[in-house]
Structure formats: structure tokens, C-alpha cells
Design goal:
55% of the residues lie in helices and 19% in strands. It has 542 residues and is an alpha/beta fold. Among the domains are: 1-114 and 440-506, 3-Layer(aba) Sandwich (Rossmann fold); 177-325, no CATH class.
Length: 542
């Protein structure tokens, strides 16, 4: 159940704390005091849409915090689950569950297990086909539970096999297309006959070819300078020092150094001469280098950033080709297993369809009886159980609640009811029938008393009271009949503080409850309205 709600900066709500209790919690109060804003806040903390226009004027952000007491839930801490959502003017959301950051969708998914909000704008999603199926199966109970459990186990295996088949390139045509592509890629790489470091060597040669004229000219100049000047000059110097080297050791040393220089220059001269010969490229060689580099660049775009990566990719291609070529036996085994699963699932689906179809009629009758008591005498629920060809998570059935609200009209899907009051009363009828099996512990009703009075009002009150025995209910109401059966009554009012309107909430004591029932029954508190309120309140225990 919701034990605590904190709202800050939403509409006229400044900073509001509400302690809720088990059973039926009824909120009454002045028009425009902020009752609907409390429901809006519950929608926000349940992952609903949020508009920046909801943020209190002059503030930069809005904040909602909720404490759910759920002692048997694995996410509870000492039985409590703390949820919060903060939204600022930029639209940024900050959602948390027990202090852990979550997305809005994660918050919404989590809260869908705890709360349902029924009002003018909140039933479209709640009355989806998924919900319809859950309602019907909840009504059926144990009769379908074991079948669903067995089907779920088979369905999980079925989905796993489908994933495995898809992972192994789908059907025969898809596998052949994939195999052809892999072979084409492998053939393209192998025809190129790539070698490691080949690209670097080709780039070096290409660079030399592009600069061949400049290289040739400077190499010739260097060779001429060494041969024509340097070597001859050093040779003459050696001969001169040989004539005096016997006189002093230092001259002998210079002679040896000059000879070393002479030999080095000869070696350098030969190298330069060789370099000069190497740059003599013909046009065919240049074209070959350009073509080869073009092939390498093309393969790099397709298969890897380097020749090494391309060669590695080629090895992977070989593995994939071998895998697909030897896949047929494995695929056949999977297909055989899939077929066996489909046969078993088909039998279970047919059983579930029969059970659901038979129970749909009974559930429709029970809901229609409740609708009649809610003064919707011309409304008729008709539950359709349509059988599909596709295996779904819960079988092959699509369950849809249809309704006729007026005589002579065609039935239409329940989610397309235009009136918020009709929708809320229809949901109340469904919840009344499913009270014992419904797993959602918290129900919120807004606008449930729209357009009703008298006998219908008494019926709505009694149904809320019955459902509240197994659920926590929050209900905004203007009807004294509903306020009279509440376990806890909250009065919502507004006041002006420092030139700003703000909302306040008060949990009423018993004598205050009677006065509030008197106020909403006649618009004023007097002896007659108090007597009427006391009489209504006395029926609470009945």
C-alpha cells in the first residue's frame, strides 16, 4: 500500500505531505483546491506524462516522492520502497527507486505492478488487450494456471530456437545468400594475394617514382662533387702526408685518418651510383604500383584498416563458410525440435482457448450484473476471445472487452468509451468481479461519481467498500454516499499565504467526517444535513 506521498511545486501545491492508510481513502473538498493535482502527482510518480505547465508558477522544478509498504517485495527495504521523480523546466527527469537512478520507462514498468489509476485520461492504456487477457485469466484462476505455466516453459524454448535459427542465417535462401556473399568476399581477398608490409613498400616506391627527376639530379650532383673533387683532393692529401709521416707520429695518424675518409668516400660514391640506377623506373612499373595500391585501398575500405586486419578477416570468413556449409544437420535438428514444440504448444493453446472462451461468457454476465447495479442498465460487456495463427507469450488468444453503452448502438472496444464517468464505473464493475483475484494492490479512482446519484451512488459506494477489503483505494468524490463508507477521509482545501494560493490536506476525525458528509450532501452544515450525514455514516459498518 501507499503509506506516504510528498508533493512539491505542482500546480497550486507548494509542499504537501499525505499519510495514507489501508482500505478506502476518500478525498473530498473545495472545488479547485487541488484534489485532481494529487491524482496527477500519483500519475507522475507512476511514470506518466508530465507537462512543464504543471510546475508551480515561479519555480524551476517539481518533485514527487512516494513510499510503498510492500514487505514481501524483493526490492523493499524493511518492507518499504521509496520512489521519487523530479522534473525541471528544461524537461529533464530524475527518477529513483530506493535511491537508484532509473529511466521513466523503468519507473513506469515497476509501478505497473502496484497501482492502477482510473480517471478521464488514464484508462486507455489500462484497458489494453494485455490487461483484458489478465482480467480474464485472473477470473478463470487455477483452471488455466497450470496450462499457462506449461505453455510458458515451452514458449521460452520455442523463442530460443527461433533466435538460434535466426543467428544461423535464417531460412535456406537466407543462408545461401549469406554463403554466396562470404565466398565472394573470400575470393576477392585471396585474388589480391596480399602480403604483410606490402603497402608500405609500395608507398615508398611510389614516393620515389613521383620524385625521380629531383632525385636523379641531386644524386648526379652529389656523385660528381665526391668523385671529381673530394676523392681526388683526399688522394693528393694522402700522398703529401705519406712523405712526412715518418717524421712525427701525429702525421702518421692523419695519414691513416685520410685513408679511412678516402675509402668511405669511395663507398659512398658507389652507393650514390647504385641509387641513381635504382630510380630509373619505366611507365609499366609505375602503373603496376598504382593499380596495386588501389586494390589494397579498396579492400581496406571493405574489410579492415590494415592488410593484417584484412588477412585476419579472411580467416574468419573461412570459419563462417565452413560453419554454414556444415550447418544443415544442426538446423534440421533445431527444426525438428521446433516442430515438436509447436505441436505441444498448439494443443495447450487450443485448451486455453476453450477455457477462456467458456469463461468469457460467464465473466461478461457477472460484469453486466454489476453494471446494472451501477445504473448502467443499458450497458453490456461482451468479451471476445479471438484465436490467432501466431504463438504469443500467453497462447494464441487476443482478448478484447467490447461494450454497448446505449440500446441500438454497435458494440465498440472498451478503451473507446468517451465518458470518464462511464469508464470509471465500468472499471469499478470489473474490479468488483475480480476483487479476489486481482493482483494490483492499489487502485485510484477519479471522476467515478460523475453523473450519478441515488441508488447508483449507493451501489458505487458499496462496491468500493467491498474492493477495499483486498485493495488500498484512493478515491476523489463529491458524493456523501462514498464519503460515508470511507475508512479514512481527507479534506482538501486551499488557502492564501504571502499572496500565493496553496493546497493543504487534513485527515478528518470522526466528528469532522460527519460534518464533511453534511457539507457535500447539501452544500451547508445544518441540523438536517447533520442528521442525514449521521444516518449515512452509521451504515458504514453494515
Amino acid at each position: 500500500m501507499i503509506s506516504f506521498l510528498h508533493i512539491k511545486n505542482i500546480g497550486i501545491i507548494d509542499d504537501l505531505n499525505i499519510d495514507f492508510n489501508e482500505g478506502l481513502n476518500v478525498l473530498t473538498g473545495e472545488t479547485g483546491a487541488g484534489k485532481t493535482l494529487i491524482i496527477d502527482s500519483l500519475q507522475i510518480i507512476s511514470g506518466g506524462r508530465f507537462s512543464k505547465s504543471m510546475i508551480r508558477k515561479g519555480e524551476n522544478n517539481a518533485f514527487v516522492e512516494l513510499c510503498i509498504y510492500a514487505p514481501n517485495n524483493e526490492k523493499s527495504i524493511d518492507g518499504n520502497i521509496i520512489l521519487s521523480r523530479e522534473v525541471n523546466m528544461s524537461g529533464k527527469n530524475m527518477c529513483k527507486i530506493n535511491g537508484r537512478m532509473v529511466t521513466v520507462n523503468e519507473l513506469k514498468e515497476f509501478m505497473s505492478n502496484f497501482i492502477e489509476i482510473h480517471g478521464q485520461n488514464d484508462n486507455q492504456e489500462l484497458l489494453s488487450n494485455k490487461k483484458h487477457l489478465n482480467y480474464l485469466d485472473g477470473f478463470i484462476g487455477n483452471k488455466i494456471l497450470e496450462i499457462k505455466k506449461e505453455y510458458k516453459s515451452l514458449y521460452e524454448k520455442y523463442c530460443q530456437i527461433n533466435k538460434e535459427l535466426e543467428k544461423n542465417y535464417g531460412d535456406d535462401k537466407e543462408r545461401q545468400r549469406k554463403l554466396d556473399l562470404l565466398k565472394y568476399q573470400k575470393d576477392e581477398i585471396e585474388k589480391a594475394n596480399l602480403k604483410l608490409n606490402e603497402e608500405e613498400e609500395l608507398e615508398e616506391k611510389r614516393k620515389i617514382i613521383l620524385n625521380s627527376e629531383k632525385l636523379a639530379e641531386n644524386l648526379r650532383n652529389a656523385e660528381s662533387a665526391i668523385c671529381d673533387n673530394s676523392i681526388d683532393g683526399v688522394s693528393l692529401a694522402i700522398k703529401s702526408f705519406e712523405k712526412i709521416e715518418y717524421i712525427d707520429k701525429k702525421y702518421e695518424k692523419i695519414t691513416n685518418d685520410l685513408k679511412n675518409i678516402y675509402y668511405d668516400l669511395q663507398e659512398i660514391s658507389r652507393d650514390i651510383s647504385n641509387y641513381n640506377q635504382e630510380i630509373d623506373f619505366d611507365e609499366n612499373e609505375r602503373e603496376y604500383i598504382e593499380e596495386r595500391l588501389s586494390i589494397i585501398y579498396t579492400l581496406k575500405r571493405k574489410y579492415g584498416n590494415t592488410i593484417g586486419e584484412i588477412l585476419k578477416y579472411n580467416i574468419e570468413l573461412e570459419k563462417d563458410i565452413n560453419h554454414i556449409e556444415n550447418l544443415e544437420e544442426y538446423i534440421n535438428e533445431l527444426k525438428k525440435e521446433k516442430k515438436e514444440l509447436e505441436n505441444k504448444m498448439q494443443t495447450l493453446c487450443e485448451n486455453m482457448h476453450t477455457v477462456r472462451n467458456n469463461s468469457a461468457e460467464e465473466l461478461s454476465k457477472n460484469i453486466n450484473k454489476e453494471l446494472e447495479e451501477l445504473e448502467m442498465k443499458n450497458a453490456k460487456i461482451n468479451i471476445h476471445v479471438d484465436y490467432t495463427n501466431e504463438f504469443l507469450k500467453t497462447g494464441k488468444d487476443i482478448v478484447t472487452f467490447y461494450i454497448t453503452t446505449n440500446l441500438g448502438e454497435d458494440e465498440k472496444e472498451l478503451s473507446k468509451i468517451a465518458s470518464g464517468g462511464e469508464m470509471s464505473r465500468t472499471m469499478l464493475a470489473i474490479k468488483k468481479v475480480l476483487a479476489e483475484t486481482d493482483m494490483i494492490p492499489i487502485l485510484v479512482f477519479d471522476e467515478i461519481d460523475t453523473g450519478i446519484s441515488g441508488k447508483a451512488a449507493n451501489s458505487v459506494a458499496q462496491k468500493l467498500k467491498t474492493i477495499a477489503k483486498s485493495h488500498q483505494i484512493m478515491c476523489i468524490s463529491h458524493l456523501p454516499n462514498i464519503a460515508a463508507v470511507a475508512d479514512y477521509n481527507y479534506y482538501i482545501s486551499k488557502k492564501v499565504i504571502n499572496q500565493r494560493t496553496t493546497t493543504s490536506v487534513k485527515l478528518l476525525k470522526e466528528e469532522e467526517v460527519v460534518k464533511e458528509i453534511a457539507r457535500i450532501s447539501s452544500g451547508e452544515i445544518n441540523e438536517i444535513s447533520l442528521q442525514y450525514a449521521t444516518k449515512l455514516r452509521s451504515k458504514k459498518a453494515s
